[in-house]
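pipeline: protein-struct stage 2 | run 1193 | ATPase dynein-related AAA domain-containing protein
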Amino acid sequence: MTTNYEIPENITKLLSTYKRNQDSYNELIRNGGYLPPNQELLIDAITALSMRKNILLKGPTGAGKTKFAETLSSLFQQPMFNVNCSVDLDAESLLGFKTLAYEGDKQVIDFVPGPVINAMQHGTFLYIDEINMAKPETLPLINGVLDYRRTITNPFTNEIVTANEGFNVIAAINEGYVGTVPLNEALKNRFVVIEIPYIEGEQLKQLIETNTQLKDRKTIDLFVKLSSDLIQAVYQGKVAEDAASIRALLDACDLSTFIPARRAIQRAIIDKLDEDREREFVLNLTETLF
């Protein structure tokens, strides 16, 4: 027996609008937007957000998770409030804080909303970066924001805040880094997970052409080959993910328009690595190619 699945009308409209506006999306890419490795990655993210589901972008450092979130924000024409997680993240960093203000000559206590409250009240996107850097006891504060309720009781004002139409949540995670903690199941279950792989081959070449000042095709091809070799080295456990960061590679491409490519790679990639053996490995690759 075959089951036919109907795509909800609002998603059909959104996806058809995306296809009709392919030129607009291409313009967004030319202006620094995220170039996905495949069409499905973009469509799946659009679909989830259209259904008001939270998405968790999971992938190696420098693969473009933040840039993808910014691109989705632009496609939905929604501003985006940001939370940068760390071990110091607390309720005030998420929700806001009280401060002294004046009404005429009278001193009053005023509440300044933080990124979560702002995004909910304005009906815009909320981006939570490196969500697994936060202390496990902090994020449960926003569990009600991340599920069907879309509400929170502001502990500073006792006001119940309900998210306005258009509110969406995108989070990003880097796994296995110092200072990160595993997400608890209650939090993870509030997200649809989208794996963000490294960009390679022709797509990386296009990204370099549209997002850096490097225009020499031969040099671009060499940087694409370097990136491919570094990604394989990461998979083989020879170097840390930092070595294959696409962000760092783009920095090296930019620098190489003014200084020799080998020195550009040294500054943008090699000198960031912690271990001597990793630095030596990347240096040998660089000298072989350049």
